[in-house]
Write a structure and sequence with these properties.
The chain is 40% helix and 12% strand. It is α/β, with parallel strands linked by helices. The chain has one domain: Aldolase class I (TIM Barrel, Alpha-Beta Barrel), CATH 3.20.20. A four-stranded mixed sheet has the order 9-1-10-11. The chain has a four-stranded parallel sheet with strand order 5-6-7-8, with helices on one face. The protein has a three-stranded parallel sheet with strand order 2-3-4, with helices on one face. Bound molecules: iron/sulfur cluster (SF4). Iron/sulfur cluster (SF4) binds next to loops.
């Protein structure tokens, strides 16, 4: 196996003190010791140190954090628009050998009656439905299926790209890239380069969970470690692939683990922007969902998860601390639309996606299990009621369609009642747009 090691400056593991604090770029900077001064510094556009973020976590109230997070949002994404994406999550396989304790999605045994590898016909039909509903992207992820050879991934991306050139393909979180490294014998960079040449446009940030190995060793001991996740993303940045950074809280971690995660992201982003002029375009956090997972059956079950209040505080602090990641997304699938709407006042400028299909967090109890997607008019309603103006975007956060404050314009958005039948392989965005415009 030829897994490349983290040799970039951003991947150095910062010396931690005996309590496990990684201070990164702010290790030697003096920190303010007064919450009001730190918040004023944020409103002036200043970067905060690790210790200052710790003080905010411990002492600032939610409204103070929201004000500072919104100031940071305005510094990076000025205006009153909140964006969203129409996309579909597609899972190509649910077979996985990694046994994460928070996962209810996977089947370990490939012969399990519920185990699957979706054929191209199924994936093609899902893509055509996505195009038909105005979607611009698929986000494709799966388990670590040891039976799938390297050629499977290349062929799948190449087939999707040539059959449906109008759909953006974001696929394979960093730990899946390491699965491909394992079965191919290639390096991470070589795997990513080949996937890009086949048509891959970006990587989802899945599998980040908490980027601190104290937590990773406990909740997902067989999964890629922090340095590996960051290394894959750094290579992805070097190739110009779009990427997002994710974070899941509620694993019984301490504040220092959360801040270590944010610090490692900020350091990588600094390095990627410096080296390649590009990096993560968005940050998304949510709370762990433990329904139907081993964590739900553990003796600490009632200690896992996080309250909406905690989620909102974390959302605001992440926006304040990550001053080099432009877009921050609210998570309606795990928090519900009301909390997600409040997150728009905690510095988020994006409402996420319609998630036409999502099987991983929904298998663990997120609300997508009962309502597989949020319609575009409903997303618009949530954004407008929160006081913002909706706009559809693509993966690169370019505006596809700007709306206004007037809900009447949504009446033209309802899709036709009939979804396409068997995949034809020739549905394009222009055909889809003509379908929608005729209705
Ligand atoms: S979270 Fe991903 S890697 Fe972990 S068990 Fe589930 S499918 Fe496998």
């Amino acid at each position: 196996m030829a897994i490349s090691t983290g040799t970039y400056p951003c991947h150095r593991t910062f010396a931690s003190d005996k309590n496990g604090y990684y201070k990164g770029d702010s290790a030697n900077l003096p920190s303010l010791t007064n919450v009001a001064d730190i918040l004023a510094k944020v409103e002036d556009g200043g970067r905060i140190t690790y210790d200052e973020a710790m003080l905010l976590y411990q002492e600032a109230d939610l409204l103070q954090l929201g004000r500072a997070a919104n100031a940071r949002r305005q510094q990076l994404v000025p205006g009153n628009t909140v964006t969203y994406l129409i996309d579909r999550n597609i899972n190509y396989t649910n077979v996985c050998s990694t046994d994460c304790t928070f996962c209810a999605f996977y089947r370990y045994d490939p012969n399990d009656p519920e185990a699957y590898v979706n054929p191209k016909s199924v994936i093609g039909k899902k893509i055509e439905e996505t195009l038909y509903l105005g979607g611009t992207r698929i986000l494709m992820q799966g388990g670590h299926n040891d039976q799938l050879p390297w050629d499977y991934y290349l062929d799948l991306i190449n087939w999707i790209h040539t059959t449906y050139p109008d759909i953006e393909i974001n696929a394979f979180s960093p730990s899946e890239i390491d699965q491909m490294v394992k079965v191919s014998g290639l390096t991470r960079y070589e795997v990513l380069k080949a996937l890009k040449e086949a048509g891959l446009q970006g990587l989802p940030g899945g599998g980040g969970e908490i980027l601190d190995d104290e937590i990773r060793k406990r909740v997902s001991p067989k999964k890629q470690r922090t340095d590996g996740w960051l290394d894959v993303m750094h290579h992805a940045h070097s190739l110009g692939l779009t990427t997002t950074a994710t974070m899941v809280i509620g694993f019984r971690e301490e504040i220092r683990h959360r801040l270590n995660h944010l610090q490692r992201l900020r350091d990588l982003q600094d390095a990627s922007l410096r080296d390649y002029g590009t990096g993560f375009n968005a940050f998304i956090s949510w709370t762990v969902q433990i329904e139907n997972t081993p964590l739900e059956r553990s003796r600490f079950a009632d200690q896992y998860g996080a309250t909406p209040h905690e989620y909102l505080r974390h959302t605001a602090i992440a926006r304040i601390f990550l001053d080099n990641i432009p877009h921050h997304q609210a998570s309606w699938p795990t928090q519900g639309e009301k909390v997600a709407a409040i997150a728009l006042h905690m510095g988020c400028d994006d409402f996420g996606s319609t998630m036409i299909e999502e099987n991983v967090v929904s298998a663990a109890g997120a609300r997508t299990s009962v309502q597989p997607s949020m319609s575009v008019p409903e997303i618009h309603r949530q954004i407008r009621e929160a006081g913002f103006i909706p706009a559809q975007r693509n993966t690169s956060y370019e505006i596809v369609r700007q709306y206004t404050a007037d809900p009447a314009e949504d009446e033209a958005l309802l899709p036709p009642a009939e979804l396409p039948g068997e995949p034809t392989g020739n549905l394009t965005n222009s055909i889809r747009l003509s379908v929608i415009n005729n209705n």
